[in-house]
Amino acid sequence: MRMTSPEQTVADASKALELAKKLNYIPGIAESWRVLGVGNYYLNEYKKAIDDYLNALEFFQQMHDLRGEGRVDNNIGNLYRDNDYDSALEFFQKGLVIAQKLHDTELMARTYLNIGDVYFRKKSFYQALSFENKSNDLFVVLKDTVNLVVCMQNRGVIYNYLKEYDTAEKLLLGANDKAKQLGLNEAVASIDLTLADIYIRESRFNDAEKTVKEGLILSQIIKDTKLTSDFQYTSYLLELKRKNYESALNYLSEVHHSDSLSFAKNGSTQINLIREQFKQQARQKENEILLQRQQYDRVKFWAVAIVACLLLFLVGVLISNVKRKAKTNLQLTNLNAEVSRQKDNLDRINHHLEEIIDERTKDLQVKNKKLSEYSSYLSHQIRGPIATLKGLLNLEKEGLVDEHECIRMMNKSVSEIDDKIIEMSDMLHDPGRVGF
Questions:
Q1: pTM, entire model
Q2: Burial (CB count <10 Å: 0-12, 13-18, 19+), residue 37
Q3: Pairwise CA distance, residues 380 & 368, whole Å
Q4: CA 20 to 30 Å from 306, out of 165, 196, 322, 358?
Q5: C-alpha–C-alpha distance, residues 114 and 299, integer Å
Q6: For 79-119, what is each residue's pLDDT tens digit?
Q7: CA-to-CA separations, 178 to 174, 183, 196, 261, in angstroms, rounded
Q8: Residue 75: phi, psi to the nearest 5?
Q9: Coil, strand, or helix at residue 103?
Q10: Crossing angle of helices 105-121/125-142, nearest 10°?
Q11: Can you give the three-state secondary structure of 66-83, one letter per residue?
Q12: pLDDT exceeds cutoff 50 at 263
């Protein structure tokens, strides 16, 4: 309802706040305060609006509701938008950081929209247009028709200041039509204000007069005193351009009167004053909490004393355990030293045994080699007499040798074999005798 009847917004939010308080429904209380602030903002009741926003912020912080805090930061930034651009950007940036952290597309879109408006007021038109385009892209995704109208309006206003009047008029007329379809009185009135400025510049006086009348009626319906004053000023410019100086002077007088009342009513000084009041209230709450804490100091003191005694007892037990462990560690160290000594002795004995085994192994290898050589030698010596016997046997079979001669030679060969066998037996029983 904020763009059609902000008074209704305030009325509905007040009912919601009453119900939420009865139910002790903290999220409802926080959001009701915030919407009350929005309604009062559109009614140009800035003092009430900041009071509402700070109440909302207190409850959102109590719930650790980051999204709620980001929305309130965005709302507070709007309060500063007309008179303190740096403070407005500070609050918008705080809201944007939260929106990006939460990946909240809606909050990001609204914040981009407001940041663009501030840069427009600072006359950084291209920077403003960049943020408005970002906002427009997100609202397209969200299918937010109301804020798409606002984006179209803002871009039209920017192009008007960039002197691209055809583009500006096209955007503003499109936004005006959609705003009328949605019944957005505040948006229609704001758009009429810029259209009237374009028509006056182009000396289209009839179009300007028609647009001003429409916007003035709507601003009075929604009870937006600031917008009404702006239309009075636009009427002054129209009559001045028409050279109707008397009418122009009357409008200028009304504008002066309205601006004087508005200045007395609004401004960043009042906003800062309310913020300081809330800081003071917060300090008073902290003092109350401090007093409550002091009432428990004695209990805490005795509790700490008892804990300290228990800690001393535990320290004594720990020291005793440490001493016992130190004694045990010393004994283990001595045992380890003795084990190390015995290990060294075993290593020496093992080393000596290894040397003996190596020496015996080498000796056996030498003897085996000699035995192999001697066996080969004896085998060769025995093979000769055996070959002689075999030859004699073959000759005797053939009748080629005398029997007595054959027997004599065979006895000789057998004797040689017997001598070799005896020699081998002696070698096996007394190897030293044969040089083995």
A1: 0.56
A2: buried
A3: 18
A4: 322
A5: 53
A6: 888 778 999 999 999 999 999 999 999 999 999 999 999 99
A7: 6, 9, 18, 33
A8: -65, -45
A9: coil
A10: 160
A11: HHHHHHHHHHHHHHHCCC
A12: no
